[in-house]
Design brief:
Blueprint: E1 4-8, E2 12-15, H1 20-33, E3 36-39, H2 50-63, E4 71-77, H3 84-92, E5 96-101, H4 121-130, E6 134-136, H5 150-165, E7 171-173, H6 179-185, E8 192-196, H7 205-209, H8 226-236, E9 243-245, H9 254-257, H10 272-282, H11 289-301, E10 309-314, E11 323-326, E12 329-332, E13 342-344
Parallel strand pairs: 2-3, 3-4, 4-5, 5-6, 6-7, 7-8, 8-9
Antiparallel strand pairs: 1-10, 10-13, 11-12
Helix pairs in contact: 1-2, 3-4
One zinc ion (ZN) is lined by residues 107, 137, 174-175, 220.
Catalytic activity: (S)-dihydroorotate + H2O = N-carbamoyl-L-aspartate + H(+)
Protein name: Dihydroorotase
Enzyme class: hydrolase
Length: 346
């Protein structure tokens, strides 16, 4: 029986660190196990300019524990006003790694996102030219499309046509939740990839809705039926480098989650590596955990893997605190619903 596992230090290719008191509390949680992370720009107001990204980067660095080597990889939030030259300069200087496309209204803090995709065509062409990846929240926002269908419809109606209009654009389909997205993501190696979250490998829509409504499992895109979870699990454990970890750890205070109109987002930064080790072991794929968490992301982004390692150790069930305290209020940690035996020990 394997009871120790040493991996190249993982990265998180999609995380929300927020700002202010929340940032102070959650940045150390991500920095503990991860070497780098793609930092989502959906603050209020969003991070749309290079100057805003530079200021946000310094606030993140200021929230890290002393001696931390964690490296935030910044993103810009694309709007219909984004200036292709400002974006290209931010990328060329190394300040910004990618740009994030939110369909307006698709998710938390996406009001400034894109409504008319033609308007961002020049920016996307510039990104293709300079090799800057586009990360996308892939859901349509049409009121007449069922929420469980919004990801699959986005691929057909928006993403595939957009990629045909902008050949050469590197795209990361963020936090995929469907078999359709997993199939599409592998259709153009090196140009197209997908992040998969920890929680979408573990929960399906029954976990949210059966036997009572569980707001801490509500996120966007919403978890789908079990067949889709199984497709994601197969993708994540397949060893195909087009799939890599993006936790989408998205903290909201318990007040904001446990409400008549609760926010979307699952906070999983603290226990993600324990959860994933359990999931990959159950799938007899522990040997593929390193690719998914530490090798395939940097490969797609054209970066070297981290030079150091982490070690996970298996033992008696580990107890994580049910929540973390933040200056903004308590934030509940993702509960996988099963015992966790693996813990990051060094
Ligand atoms: N995933 C979520 O449910 N929420 C994210 C936004 C996002 O990634 O779509 C958030 O910022 O809270
Ligand atoms: Zn999203
Ligand atoms: Zn997110």
């Amino acid at each position: 029986m394997t009871d120790r596992l040493t991996l190249t230090r993982p990265d998180d290719w999609h995380v929300h660190l927020r700002d202010g008191d929340m940032l102070a509390a959650v940045a150390p949680e991500t920095a503990r196990d991860f070497g780098r992370a793609i930092i989502m720009p959906n603050l209020v107001p969003p991070v749309v300019t290079a100057a805003q990204a530079a200021a946000y980067l310094s606030r993140i660095l200021g929230a890290l524990p002393a001696g931390s080597n964690f490296q935030p990889l910044m993103t810009l939030y694309l709007t219909e006003q984004t200036d292709p030259e400002d974006l290209a300069a931010a990328h060329a200087s190394g300040l910004v790694t990618a740009a994030k496309l939110y369909p307006a209204g698709a998710t938390t803090n996406s009001a400034s996102g894109v409504t008319d995709f033609d308007k961002v065509q020049p920016v996307l062409e510039k990104m293709a030219e300079i090799g800057m990846p586009m990360c996308v929240h892939g859901e349509v926002t049409d009121a007449d499309i069922d929420i469980f269908d919004r990801e699959a419809v986005f691929i057909d109606r928006v993403l595939d046509p957009l990629r045909r209009r902008v050949p050469g654009l590197k795209v990361v389909m963020e936090h995929i939740t469907t078999a359709e997205a997993a199939a599409y993501a592998k259709s153009d190696p090196g140009q197209l990839a997908a992040t998969i979250t920890t929680h979408h490998l573990i929960i399906n829509r029954n976990h949210i809705l059966a036997g009572g409504i569980r707001p801490h499992y509500y996120c966007l895109p919403v978890a789908k039926r079990e067949t889709h979870r199984l497709a994601l699990l197969e993708a994540a454990t397949s060893g195909n480098p087009c799939y890599f970890l993006g936790t989408d750890s998205a903290p909201h205070t318990d007040d904001a989650k446990q409400s008549a109109c609760g926010c979307a987002g699952v906070f999983s930064a603290t226990n993600t590596m324990s959860c994933l080790a359990e999931v990959f072991e159950a799938a007899a794929a522990l040997d593929r955990l390193e690719g998914f968490t530490a090798l395939f992301g940097p490969q797609f982004y054209g970066l070297a893997p981290n030079a150091d390692t982490i070690t996970l150790t298996k033992g008696d069930p580990v107890q994580f605190a049910t929540h973390i305290d933040t200056g903004a209020g308590p934030v509940t940690l993702f509960n996988p619903g099963f015992d966790l035996h693996w813990t990051v020990t060094s």
